[in-house]
Amino acid sequence: MTDRYDAGMATRRAVLGDAHVDRAEAAKEPFDAPFQRMITEGAWGTVWADDTITRRERSMLTLALLAATGNFDEIPMHVRATANTGASPDDIMQAFLHVGVYAGVPKANHAIKLAKQTLREMGVL
């Protein structure tokens, strides 16, 4: 493995937690192994591993971008990750308020619904 892969896996574990990454790794098959490697090196080993902005800020950006682009399936995972990145429920709401203004109220509304459900499951709300 590359240094970027190793850095990515360490960052991925720090943000998403060992249990999540272990499940993803156990589900990995030869078919999706190239994709898993790409996201580990690119998303986690390059973008998330960069310390120009904090992980809290990255969480807020990620949640806003997921909602703004309608990629709702990953919102609960990234809401759970806020327990490790330091983004608070208020931070999450601020990200989704931006989505409402700049990408549309229906997208923000759905993202907030998913976040509320996930935060309740986490015992935060």
UniProtKB/TrEMBL annotation:
GO MF entries: 4-carboxymuconolactone decarboxylase activity
Cited Pfam families: CMD
Enzyme class: lyase
Domain Carboxymuconolactone decarboxylase-like: 34-116
InterPro entries: 4CMD/NDH-1_regulator, AhpD-like, CMD-like, Decarb_PcaC
Domain of life: Bacteria
Coiled coil: none
EC number: 4.1.1.44
Transmembrane segments: none
Keywords: Lyase
PANTHER family per record: 4-CARBOXYMUCONOLACTONE DECARBOXYLASE FAMILY PROTEIN (PTHR33570), CARBOXYMUCONOLACTONE DECARBOXYLASE-LIKE DOMAIN-CONTAINING PROTEIN (PTHR33570:SF2)
NCBIfam families assigned to the protein according to its UniProt record, in alphabetical order: decarb_PcaC
Protein name: 4-carboxymuconolactone decarboxylase
Organism name: Loktanella gaetbuli
